[in-house]
Amino acid sequence: MTVVVIPAYNEEKSIGRVIRDLFERGYKNLVVVNDGSSDATASLAEQAGAKVLNHPINRGQGAALQTGDDYAVFIGAENVVHFDADGQFNAVDISGALRLMAEKNLDIILGSRFLDKRSKIPAVKRRLILPVARLINLLFTGVRLTDAHNGFRILSRAALGKIKITQEGMAHNSEIIAQMKKGNLSFAEYPVEVVYHEYGQGFAEGVKVVRDLIFAKIFK
C-alpha cells in the first residue's frame, strides 16, 4: 500500500485541487497533516476525501511529515510519498518514481527539479537559494545531490524504520538525507516538475530555509 502524506499550513487555495489530482491518478490513501492552519485547509481536505490529522498549533513542515509518517506506518504502508500541499508538484510523477524504486529495489526516491527542463525556476532560486542549499547539504551530510531542497520524496517501510524527523522546520530535508546516509539506505534522484505560483514560497521563505539548515547544524 502506498500512502501519500501531505503536510499543509494555510493551503485552502490549493489543497482541494491537490487531493483531487491525486485521486484521479489512482492514489486513494491520502493523509493531510493540518499543521495548525487558521484557514479552511482542514475542512476542505476532508470534503475532498482525504484523511486529516490535526496539529493544534503550527509546528513546522518537518513535524507534520513525521506525524504523517507515523500514521502511515500504523496503517501498514509499504511506501510513503511526501507531497506538498501548495500545488507545486505534479501527481503524474509519482508512478514513474515508484516504478524506479521497485525496479532497483531502492529505499528512497528523492525528487529533483534539475534532471529535466519542465520546472521554470525563478532566477533568485535557481542562481542563489537552491545552489546555497545544495552546498550546505553537501557540507553537512556528505551526500551530493542535484536538488537538496525538494519536498517530493518516497520512503520505503524499511527507510521509515530508520528515519525519524526531529527538525520541525525546513531543515528536515538535510536531516532526512543525513539519516539516509547513516542508515546505509539506497536511493536515487528522480526528475519531478515543480510549478511555481505567486502565492507559493517566495524569497523570504527561501532565506528561511537556508537559515534553518545552518542553525540546525550549529546548534545540534
TrEMBL record:
InterPro entries: Glyco_trans_2-like, Glycosyltransferase_2, Nucleotide-diphossugar_trans. GO terms for molecular function: transferase activity. Residues 4-162 form the Glycosyltransferase 2-like domain. It comes from sediment metagenome. This is Glycosyl transferase, family 2. Its EC number is 2.-.-.-. Keywords: Transferase. Gene3D superfamilies: Spore Coat Polysaccharide Biosynthesis Protein SpsA, Chain A.
